[in-house]
Amino acid sequence: SSLDISTWIRLEKPRTKSKRIDVYYYPPSKERLRSINDVKIYCQKNKLEFDPNQFNFKPTKANTRFEEKSECHNETSSDSVDEASFVNDIFQNEIYMTEIPKTFKETQISPDKEKWNEAMSEEIKLMQNRKVWDLVEPKSNMKVLGCRWVYNIKHDEKNNVKKYKSRLVAQGFKQRPGVDFTDVFAPLVNFDIIKFLFVLLVCILGWNHYQIDVKGAYLYGNLDIPIYMQQPEGFVLKGCEHYVCRLQKSIYGLHQSGRQWNLELSEILFGLGFHQNDLCNGLYTKSNCILLVYVDDIVVFSKSQSDLEN
Length: 310
What we know:
The protein has eight helices and 13 strands. By secondary structure, it is α+β, with helices and mostly antiparallel strands. It folds into three domains: 5-54, Methyl-cpg-binding Protein 2, Chain A, CATH 3.30.890.10; 104-181 and 223-253, no CATH class; 191-215 and 261-308, TATA-Binding Protein, CATH 3.30.310. Residues 1-62 form the MBD domain.
């Protein structure tokens, strides 16, 4: 099923004896997840759709708590936080310890309103260029899905803010199995395979490697079932307020989006002469070149620079 990130808590917890800030995510079960791999395992265990782009494990602030303490300061019990109680209070009182907005309305009262608006406009422009939907008049028998904005902040290697990111996500949890979607399986290469091939091919054999991040990857996938969605908040077309979006592409949040993107990618790779591995469907080979696909990231290994460029 689809993952509703708005029901999760993101917590940044500064350490008192170092400058490090730990970032945790808490799903409604209040289980603490320390890394993107923990999130992936949790999603697999609970049969939730996993999208790594929805999670940011990099701190958004510097650890001023450490800088304010002297070197001789000893942490006392009063300094420590009862984390379980604190997280419980967050869920009960809906207090969020992050400046990343949860809703469109929050972006409009945020000090970074212009940056969030720019990020949303960029997402809408991308969808327009990809022809993700057209507007149609709703009919009484239409099942119309809602949608919402998901926000994130990307950082560089020095933890400086690199980019404000907005993603429009359909409420796929309202889709009807067998009506709005059928097959949802999409192959996903295991991280252990990526690490093994990197050590073998790059470190030992001296192969070249390159990583490709496909922007808006799911938006390349074509839908084979008609799906309708409300217009996104903040971007309702004037004069067509009652119209709905008829989706042409596999927008994020739909059950079948990962599969549709993978089918589109596979068709392109097959046309380029690549072959899909029978035992690992996320691995493609062609002469002296190997491709590994993980959601919207593609890792390329090649024996020579010319093979990599080709």
